[in-house]
Structures are given as C-alpha cells and as structure tokens.
Design brief:
4 copies of one chain form a homotetramer.
Chain A: H1 9-27, H2 46-65, H3 76-80, H4 104-124, H5 127-161, E1 185-188, E2 191-195, E3 211-215, E4 218-221, H6 227-235, H7 247-256, E5 264-267, E6 270-275, E7 278-281, H8 293-302, E8 306-307, H9 310-319, E9 353-359, E10 385-388, E11 405-407, E12 416-417, E13 420-422
Parallel strand pairs in A: 9-12
Antiparallel strand pairs in A: 1-4, 2-3, 4-13, 5-6, 6-7, 8-13, 9-10, 10-11
Helix pairs in contact in A: 1-4, 1-5, 2-4, 2-5
C-alpha cells in the first residue's frame, strides 16, 4: 500500500467518524435476527462484519499505539479475525453463523468503544506518530469501505433467501430514467500502456508493480450489457447449449440447474428480480446483474464477442476517462439504465463490477508486505478473476481505474455485470 | 392416539394457556439472535419452534373449526410446517436457519393471535363439538410439550456452540445434594409382561398395539451410571479400544475424534462440562449425560454388563414403580446425583432419557391414523433406538412408563444417559 | 459358534476341497478385468473375495497350527483383512478396487498354496489336535460359503454396471415353469415359541442365546410377492405416494429417483431386468427381487399388510417346515415362480432372502467370543434389518431356519424379496 | 490447429503405425487388472486410453471418410468418448473404472481393427482427399501422443497406489550421472517478444493468436530446482508456515496433511520415492518432481524468488534455445540431474513440465474451430495454470517452445517441476 501525505488530524477524524457511522447506517434497517445468519459460506453475518471491522482497528492500531488501551473482550479476537493467520486462531469461515453472542447491541457497544478510543488516540498522538500510523489507519478505512459493500451484497442475499422476500429500503423518491441506448463498439488503439497505480494517494498493494503491457487494437462496448440483451441469450437456449460455455461453467449450470441470473424469478409468465427494494419486474434497459464469470463468458461467446482483459479495461479508461458513476451515494442500490444522450463509453465506473478475462495474479514487481498486512491480498492470487470499475454498492471515493477486485468465476452474489469487446 | 373423557372447557383453557405460556417463558432469557440459528441440522431455531407449534393449532384446529378464522400470514404454512407431507411443501429442515423473517417479535405476535383465537374457539364451541375436537387439541398440547423439551436441548446446543459459553439461567438457589450411591443390581423376575398403554388418558399411537412379551429373569441397576463411573471407562482407554464398540460407533469415534461426552472440556487438567448454568466442574456423583447410544453400549460392554431392552425397562417399572423424578419443574435443567438413602430402583423417571437396546419399531397391532396425524410417529420407525423415562427437561405431566422416545444411535444433544442390566 | 462332533479327517478334507473349489468355479466365467473393480462400496472385487477367504485360513489356522508354515506374501494380511481390528491394519473397504496387484493369477496361486498346506495340515495333525481346530476350521468353511453368495451378488452388480450388460452364464437348459399361484394367508397360532439354534451342528453366534418369545396369532403369505403384484404397486404410483413409506425410505426414493427394483429397465415400453443370464423380460409370476427394506415395507403398507418379524418367520417354519428350496445348486441364479400345485407355505427356503421388520440385535444371552472371532457378527448389531431363509445364491447346506442374515434397510444388491403377514 | 504441407502417403502411414504401436508398447508390461482401475478421478484406466484414442480415429476419420466402414461395436462411442458434447452422451469421467467390458484383449482387437482400416483408407484415398483429411489425421496422432504421456503418469499412479509398490520396468542399463550443478540466474533482457506458434508445422489452436507482449528485464534459473533444494524447504518447516503459501494451497496442505511431494515415503529415517522402476532413495541432485503449483509457488516464496510467467518462459527460449532434453525416448521415465558441464539454461525441454504463474487463458485472437474439434482446448480455459517444456514422459517430437500444457494448481500426478525467476 502506497505512502500518503499527512492530512490534518481533524480531517482524519472526520473521515474516520463518517466512514464508521456509515457502516451503522447500512445496518440500521435490519432486524437483529438478520444480522446473525450465513445462508451460504460466501455471505458473512452483518453482525460479524460490524465487529470484524472494529477488531481491525483494535488489533492493528489501538493495541500497538494506545498504551492505556484495554481490549473490549478477550475472545473477540478469536471471534472476529477473518483470515489473518499471523493474528492467531479464529472461528472458521463457515461457522460464523453459529455465533449468536455477542448480540447485535453488544457489537454496537464494541464499535462505540473502539470509536471513542480511536478518537482519543488521534487527538492525543503527537503529529510525527500520526504519520507513522497513517498507512495502517488508511488501510483500516479502506477495509471498512470494502466491508460496507460486502454488507450490502450480503444483506441482499440474506433478505433474498427469505421466502417472504422482504425489502431492505424503498426505492429513493427521485426516480431513475429507463430508456434504450444502442450498443456501439468504440476503438481503443493498440500499443504500450502503463498498468497499475502511479498516483500519490492510497492504493492497494495488488495495484503496484506498475508495468507496461503491449496491447493490440481492440474495441469496447459503449455501455454494460442489458437485461434485454441477456434475455435474448436465455430465450435462444443460452443455458442449454454447451457450445457457449467453459466446461466447468456448463457443469455448474447443469448441477445447479441455472436458467437465469441470481434473484430472477418468473411470476405469471413474466421475469421479475429481487432487489433491495423488493421484487420488481425486470427492466430490459437496465444492465444485467448478479451473473457469474461463466455466464458473462457464455453470453460473450453467444454474441460473437468476448470479454475485455483487465489490461484492456484499464487502457480503455485511459482513452475514455470514466464519468461520474452510479455509486452507493445515489442510494439506488441497483444498477441503472445507460444514458442514451451520453457520448463515449459509459458505466466504466459504478453500476456493476465488470468481469474481465484476466486471472487475479501478481503484477510483475508485486511483493507482499511483512506482517499481517501481507495477508491482505497476495495469498488470494489464484483461481479468481479480476473485476473492474466498482458498483452501485461501492462508495464513490473508494474506486480507482487501477482498482482490482476479484472473485471466483462461479460467484453470483456480488453486483457483477458484462461489458463486451469486439473480437478481432 | 387414545380417546379421552371430556374435561370441562374451563379446564381445557387453563391447560392450553399454561402450556402455551410455558413455551414463551422458556425463550424469555434468549437474545433475538439466539432464536434464529441452527448450528447442526438436528437443532431447530427457537423462533421456529415457537412458530411451528402455533402453526399446528392454526392448521389442524383453527382453520377447520373456526369458520371466521383468517390465517395470520399466507406463507407461514410453508415456513413452519415440519415434516407433514400431507400439509404441503415446506422449508427443508437444514435450511431453517436461513429464515430471519418473521423476526422474533412477529412470531410472538403470531403466537398471541393463535392463542386469542383458540380461546375464543373453546369458549364459543358447543360442547359436543369440543368432544370431537378433543383428540387433536390434546395432541397439540402434547406436541407443544415435546417441543418445549426440544427447545431446552436446542438452546443448550446453541449457547454451547458460542465460544463464550454463555449461561442460560443461573442454578436455582436451593442447591442439590451430591453424594455417592453404590451401584446395585435389582432382580426383575422373568415371565409374561403386558407392554403398551392400557390407561384411559392420552397416549401416542406408538404406545398402542398393547401386547405381551415373554422375558427371562434379569437384573437392573438401581440408578443411572455416574460421571465417575464413565470417567473410569475413559481413563481405561474406553474411546480407543475397538473391542467395546459397535463398528459404526467406533467409526464415529474415530471420525469425530470423540474422547468424552458432548459438552465436556478439559481446563487446567480437570474435566468441566457446559451446562445451562455455564461451565461447571464435572461432579462424579451425577449421572453421565449427553452420550450417544454407541457410547452407552460401549460403556456397558466395557463394564461386563449390557443395556436393557425397552421391554425390560417397562417391566422393571411394573416391579419398581418410578418415584417422583427430577423433571423440568425443578428448574435444575441438569440431572442430579441419585439419593443414597433411597431404596429400590431410582431415576427411572426424570434426570435422563435412558437408551435401550431396542429399535424403534411398531408394536404388533400398530396402525397409522389417516390424514396428517398419521405422519406423527409411524414414518420414523427405522434406524432409531428407543429411550425411556423422560429427563430433567421433560414436563412431569408429559411422561408415562409406556412413553417411547426415539433418536438415532449417534445423537448426543438430548439429555441421554445409561442404565445397565446385569448380563446373564 | 457351537461345538461340533468330530467327523473323520477324510470327510473334512473332502468338504474343504469341495468348498474351496466351488469358489474358483464361481469366478471361472469372469475376465481378469471383472475381478478387480468395486462399482459401489458394498461390492468387493471378486479377486479380493478369493484372496480374503484364503487369508482367513492362513491367518487363523495355518499360522497357529502348522509350525513350518511360511506365509505366502508378507503384505497379504494388510491387503486381504476385511474388518478384523484384532488382526492389524488393513486396506480401507472403499479402496479395495485400487489394488490391482496381486493379479488374479497370483491370487489363484495363493489359493493353491493355502489349499495344499491345509491338506497337509489335516493329514498330518494328530486327531486330538483336529478336534481343537475344528470350530475355527468349520467357521472358515461357513465363511467361504458366505463369500460365495457375496461373489454371485457382486458379480451381478459388476456385470450389470457395464453398459453392455454382459451375461455371466446362459440359463441352464432345463427350463423352469412359470405359472400363477394365488396368494393365501396361512394361520400361525400365537403362544410361546423357542427362538435360536438348539441343534448340535454348526451355527453362528448370533443364533445363540436361545430364548422364548410370546407371539399373538398371525397369518403368513403362502409364497413370495411376485413381480406382477409389485408392478401393480408401481402402476398405482407406489414410488410417488409418501403415505406408504418410512420417511428415510421416501427420502432415498427421491434422492436416487427410484422408480422400480434394482436392475429393472424399460425397453420399448416393456419392463426388463438384468439377470445373470443377460437382459430378460420381467416374468410376472416370479418373485420380485433386489428391493430394499424400504420398498418391501412400502409395498406391504400399500397392500394393507405388513412384513413378518424375524420371530414370526422362525415360528412359521416351526408350523410349516420349509420344503427343498431353489438354492445355488439349481444353477438358476435367479428366483423362480412358486408352484401352483404345492400346499402350505412355499419358498421359505431359497429363492430370496426375506426382509423382516426386526432389527439385527443380540438375542438376550448373546455374548461375543474372545479374540478375532468375536468380531465376526456382534459388532454389526445396529442399524441393520434381519433377513431369513436364504436365496438362489445360497449353498443349500448353508441355511437353517434359525439363520440370521442382515443388511442395512437401503441395500438392494442382494437377492432380497417380500413375504407379507396379514395385519390383525 | 494450423495447416500442414502434405507429406507422402507412405510417410503418413509409417508415422501412424509407429505412434499407434507405441501406445501398445507402453501398456505391454501391465497386467489386465492394471488396465481397468481409476484410483483418483484424474487417472483414467489404461484400457480406456487405448480404446479412446482408437475411437477418435474411428469417429472423426473412418466413419466420415471410409464409406464401407462398419463401426466395431455400437456402444463403444458411448464408452470411449471423453468429453465431446458434440459427439453424444458418454460414460461420466468418474465412472470409467466401473467398465470392465470390453476386456483388454477386446480393446486390442478394436485397436487392430481401426489400424487396419486406417491403413486401407490411407492407401486407397485419392491424394487430394488425403490433403483434406490431413488436419484431423494429424490431430489424431498428436492426441494419441498426449494420451501416451497420460498413460505413463496414470500407470505410475495406479502402480504407486498398490501397497506392494510394483515396478513398471527396470531402470535402463545405461546409468545416468548424478552430480551437483550450482544454481545460476541468467539474464533475459526486457522488451517486446512475439508469443505463439509462427511455424508451418502442426500446433494446437491454443498456441495461435500470435501476439506481442512487453516484458521487463528478468533472470531465469539455469536448471530445475533439485530434490536437495526442496528438502531444505521441507526441513525449514516449509509445509507448516502459512506465510509461503497461497491460501487455497495452504488449505490443501492442511486438509491432505501434505508433508512432501507425491510418491515420497520415509523408510528407516530416509526419504525414498516411488518411481516407475520401484522405490528408490531420493537423489538430491535430481529435479524435484510431482509437486502441485501450490508447492512450486510456496517453494519460490520461501526462497525469495518467484515462478516465471508463460511469456517469460517462452521469451527465455528465444534467448536460450532449448537443448536436447530427457524425453520419453531415453526410457528413463524419471527426471535426471542437470549437467554440471553444460552452459546456459538447461532442462527447458524434457525432464519436467514447469509450472508458470500464468492462467491458461485464450491468446488475444484465439478462436474455437467449429464442430467437435472446437471442444479440444478452448472450453478448459479457466482455473488451470500453464506448464511448459515437456517431460521425461513426453515424446520428443511432440514438444515445441510454444506448447501450452495446463493443469489445475492442485494436481501432482503429472511430471511437474520448478524453475525460478529472480525477483526484481
């Protein structure tokens, strides 16, 4: 993670409190019962997210930097460590839902305890010490923002697993437009492109190892693939014709009897989808969402196109700088239809994470940090695919054109979508 | 289920309200978060128990007998049916924990709604109609009592799965005695014994098909096997010597690496056990508890004895009528040491369900009732073993000497214990 | 296992050689490739059966009794021990099919080696020593006969798993009759019956613990249930109506999508079944075969009857002594239709093992022998159901009215069938 | 797959017969019993390999091109199709070992039948038709060579699973040298490199989509990592220190309790390994073999180095053209120690396939052929890692510097090894 120039303490405090508060705002509409379950192993209980992000600050900042600090509860390190082997043993991931205690209200007290001491620490710490602490402090905030996005996707899964399909929040009053935007393929010239984060702000270690790649000419779609386009694939027998699919993808389709994106249900002969605002009719102009890499790739094959690589995606943003996207601040919490009036390449930022045909591997000069921070990214660099651009659940100040998200190719519960490249 | 003479309506109402209230009392000490989880498939979420027992009254009594009745929620039948194929499709057992909605408070409202309408029904129904309704009404109460016992065992498992091992309630103030009672083997003469329920009160259909069995002379232990005796088995390598074990039992021991009863943990070199009152040191005079049939049988083999059959157990109660036992009303919620002063055969009732070496099969004249009630017992008559006598979690007015409880031989989360018979 | 009066050495030798030869005769029609596979865990490779039965004689007789004996191969004990913990570690059951070496021809050489030394031993051993050795010698022969039956059922499964459905042997020239025999229910009077082996010949330890049981009057079907009767059950939706089934049985039906007995396939709209003589049209008069206990019980429920208990079955043979049955010597290797001319109760012996509604549990006075022989039967006395009467794959001199066979209730690859009792 | 200039028919025939004969030579030392088993799902029965490669010629050449051709057996297409959905249904991969028929000798007859008809076809076909047929004919030969390598690795696994650890063949008489070659890191200058097959001979479709990549300067090890170097990693606790491992790799290590490469066993305190010549002491100078990608990567991390990417590997061969390698023709069937006298970069060809840190993905311009040949490579382009350079089990005329082999990162039964790049 890159170095940062030291902002004033007051600014740090404000950002800290704002981001921490945001986590609680996300969980406010939930029942305590919603915060403890784990319907699939990928989903963590919201209560766990809230405690885990606090444990991060407690363990990596309060304990080493605030001498008087007393840990809130001796067993919370065991309960709320996620995957840091360096930081001791822990509840195994698939058992997170068996932990009913501490209850939500005690987790909230834990958050407040950590917040108060973080505020005290930042106010009391000499400025030169603040500078030393800054990288891990910044990582803690970025980490909390990542969990905010996971909270939203996990809440969606938890509510969507309930047969009653309860809404999380109503659609925001100010309604979005939905209109058709014709697909176009926009030129990106070949040549050498510089890949990776070169700025002076924060970035993750997996964006470093800045290096050049040589690309051939290619074309990128001007927007995300829509529900209407995807429905045409479905209606053309897309889920039953093996020729479009990677072999492991088709095996998954058969085993799980997939016929449509996650959250799609047919009612009275019409496709609906569960959204965080309840069940809605599928809007043909909106981007297709909650599909696996396998489905994205099969759709691309069916349409005679292909997915971009992560390098092509990053190069495209150098040619077509991303516009303001539909991020979590819009409170839509679902992707929106593209804008027919807009020019250039839309939706590179926000709406949906875009599957690329690039494995999540280290950049040439990548190296892991020593200590627990070294476990943040590097050890996951196998069997996962890179996604780019952020989604409607991502905080807008959390994204970069160099940001590399990653999931296994079978995962569907994230806000994932498709952008095509024209085959040459 | 046998016929009943009609008690006065007022009496019925009182029993109904008392038993229904008792379920809520059991759940009162829980956090909402405790009521939604299912750490193993055998355990149901307490919230589910509370709703399921209400669904039973709603579906089998209110809907058919109260014409004006409107069901509380159209999806609750799907959510809270347990295993009645006759009553439609349902949430699969192992998915009960993914249902966070309705939350606890709505389930409590559901209970109140059902209670109010049950009260109205009983008050308004003509007396001859009450008689017609009586068998299913009585079954509903017995059913709720069975779930009360399951609630206690499931709550114990849920709390015991939390690494913080929270207590459910403190030990009741009035303390129990613990002293050693020497083991004795008491004669039961051979001959023909009549098996099954012959009274005029309520019984389950699996107690009917009254029939005679011929038994040889045998001897029964005068009390339950103690923790001290079981510890001797453990210390003698009981869990590692295949010769004591049924083959499938030893396979389970190796696969799950069993070394002690469920809930036993070693701390600072001493055995403790998780109880509903928190972690306690193992008391050597108390009955050993939470063991599988396999462990009970292995212990019996190790000690040169054997388990009783269910017929021997029932015959023993004809020779040594059970004394007042340690049932749920004592609020101990754990088995107590036998009484050194008592004569005859102790602990036949209460403390712990006693594993017998009898498969849970139909009695000779057994027949299933038509309709959903026919699914109550008969379809489970395979691969399970009979347990007798009730436990510290059983309501005292719920037990009979002819009562047949049944679990698979590997189950350990119930209040199960061991009584030996002398080998001939 | 009971004591035996000593037969002359020459007689012993002849029986030994005859039984041993029979095993090789059974395997003669196989390809070497057939002898190494294990399509399901229940089935053992024929090569393994041949070696295992030899290992039994080598380990329990030659090693202790023939001082000069040198074991054939130091690793065979590891390779060919079945389940005797007392006799050291072994290849796990489910890995038997990964053992390609020794090849068949070396196993045959092993058999010959053991046979030669057994012959030498019996000829050289002083008569008083022969008497000492007799029980384990007899057990070895009975054991080999049990494996001969398993060989036939396992060969059937192995060949039937090949998509080419190769025949094992042609139907014997002399053809069987097939005609309808009307079902009758024959009276067996209630009262006390003596159960268990009381003779002076060989029996297994699980037949001992002779004891009395008291039975009510009942009626037994005069023959086995036919394919025609079972087909009526199938055509009446037997496999889809949960009301006939034990809960675990119906779960198996749904999971495995069962629709007919094992080996039944529909071709051109007609039911055929794979037999050891190849694919044949289902004969409606022949007994239905290769059904699980669950199917037997569901059929009984559907027909308003029930299965016998093992005690009722044994009592029935005291009232209706079994006639000469269709055993392995007939070389039919499939069950035959009952005889319309015959009186009384037919097919008690031979044709098919009959599922009883009795768990395989110890008789009252049962005790395990010390040493490895104690592992023969006792440790399997859980979760299995008793079958009685032998089958078309059983040697005729291997059966007794007190013989208790046992399998888990879901097993279908044995020659299993149904006899009904009339419900009272 | 690329076009070929037409060789004379006689030459084609000779190559065909030679390659086909080679498959039978590989299987000659086996027992029939060895040819039918499948100890893990990755391994196919040798009998299946022999039939499958014949089915390929029968289905894709004889049936379409030889009008008079009669298929050998109507069910062989079902039995011996591997994964071609376009060519109908088939035995599922994990059930290949349940197919005992046809036995080996009938498979050999099938091979001969196909060979005779292929010879007739080539002799009779007009020259212009031969040209049309050439691509699929060439693919059939290459396909058979790939299965020859799989045969050797599968035979090794099958024999190595036998507790008796039988040798396949003795070590060839002419003994290999073993001496230490110091590790050196050799410069490869950065810049643009052309990747993919540009020749006029045969190549697979996955080598096409020739394109340029831009590489930074790097250094490659001059030989493969040795057993001695790997042993140092093991002795330094390599298998227990999570810091060296990818998370999924460390999970595999813990679950399978890995402590050493596949086939390593400790005897009398010394490491031995099972080879195709039987159990041998580990030679510290020989390359470490049979390790997964996870182990290769962990070793690289431990040594402060990294693996090459597939592009770096191919670039290295442009700088250091590979020397004659230890291929299958040496009959060593195991990797050999590097040559201390040799200069430059050794072992790029032969000895062991080298894991690269590159996912097996399509090259930029990759496109699948229409029809069944399109299923050859493309549908596997997910979750697998590229290996380069061929092994001691590869035919020497089957390898190219552009050849891309691929396996899942957990696989260990192939001849896989490690080459390091110096970290920058």
């Amino acid at each position: 993670m890159s170095l940062l120039t030291a902002p004033a303490t007051q600014e740090l405090l404000e950002r800290f409190n704002q981001i921490r508060q945001r986590t609680e705002t996300i969980c406010a509409p939930l029942e305590p019962e919603d915060t403890v379950v784990q319907p699939i192993v990928d989903v963590s209980p919201p209560k766990w997210h809230m405690a885990h992000t606090s444990w991060f600050f407690e363990t990596l900042i309060l304990q080493p930097y605030l001498p008087s600090y007393k840990i809130f509860h001796p067993q919370f390190a065991y309960l709320f460590n996620s995957y840091y082997n360096s930081l001791g043993s822990r509840v195994l991931r698939h058992q997170r839902s068996t932990i009913t205690r501490p209850p939500l209200r005690e987790v909230l007290a834990y958050r407040q305890h950590v917040n108060e001491h973080m505020n005290r620490l930042l106010q009391e710490l000499p400025e030169e010490k603040v500078a030393e602490l800054l990288p891990i402090f910044e990582l803690g905030l970025q980490h909390e923002q990542q969990h905010q996005e996971l909270l939203i996707t996990d809440i969606k899964y938890i509510l969507g697993t309930n047969p009653t399909l309860p809404a999380y929040l109503p659609r925001p009053a100010q309604q979005r437009q939905s209109a058709a935007t014709p697909a176009q393929f926009m030129e990106v010239p070949g040549g050498k492109y510089k890949i990776g984060y070169q700025g002076s702000g924060f970035c993750f270690d997996n964006e470093l190892g800045v290096h050049e790649v040589y690309l051939e000419d290619f074309e990128t779609m001007n927007r995300l693939v829509t529900n209407g386009e995807y429905l045409a694939f479905m209606q053309d027998g897309g889920y039953t014709d093996f020729r479009h699919w990677l072999d492991e993808g088709f095996a998954m389709v058969k085993e799980q009897q997939l016929q449509a994106p996650l959250y799609w249900v047919q009612q009275d002969g019409e496709w609906h989808r569960f959204t965080l605002h309840g069940l809605e009719k599928v809007d043909l102009n909106e981007p297709v969402c909650h599909i696996s890499f396998y489905e994205a790739d099969a759709f691309a094959n069916w349409s005679g196109k292909r997915l971009l690589t992560e390098f092509e995606w990053e190069a495209a943003t150098q040619v077509y700088p991303p516009q303001k996207g539909n991020f979590v601040e819009s409170e839509q919490l679902e992707p929106l239809a593209a804008n027919p009036q807009a020019e250039g390449v839309q939706q590179l930022f926000g709406d949906l994470w875009e599957w690329t045909y690039s494995a999540y591997h280290p950049y040439p000069g990548f190296s892991k940090a020593p200590g627990p921070v070294g476990e943040y990214n590097g050890k996951f660099m196998i069997n996962q695919m890179v996604l780019r651009g952020g989604s409607c659940a991502t905080p807008s100040n959390h994204i970069r054109t160099t940001y590399r998200n990653f999931f296994h190719p079978d995962k569907r519960w994230q806000y994932t979508g498709i952008r095509l490249a024209a085959k040459k």
